[in-house]
Design goal:
It comes from Dentiscutata erythropus. It is built from one helix and five strands, in the order E-E-E-H-E-E. By secondary structure, the protein is an alpha+beta fold. The longest helix is centred in the middle third of the chain and has 11 residues. The radius of gyration is 13 Å and the shape is globular.
């Protein structure tokens, strides 16, 4: 799973959507995309609980809000 931002209006300063995306590393390569309003640990943890199955490997950058988002879940968090 990757969390990133996507600018929705390039001419408007600060205008962007936050995208949570997941692509399986399998032959099927199924993907999952969702936009969220806030990119904080509470919101990301809610997404993990609701949409992501156990034993997922979660890849993120080193942004401090991602620290501990795997707590209470059966996922691996890598940067």
């Amino acid at each position: 799973m990757v969390i990133d931002t996507l600018k929705d209006e390039p001419n408007k300063i600060g205008s962007k959507d936050v995208i949570v995306q997941r692509v399986e590393i399998t032959d099927e390569k199924r993907c999952f995309l969702i936009t969220i309003e806030k990119r904080d640990s509470k919101t990301i943890q809610k997404i993990l609980n609701e949409y992501i199955e156990p034993e997922l490997i979660l890849y993120t950058d080193c942004w401090r809000e991602y620290n501990g988002i795997e707590d209470g879940l059966n996922v691996q968090h890598k940067t």
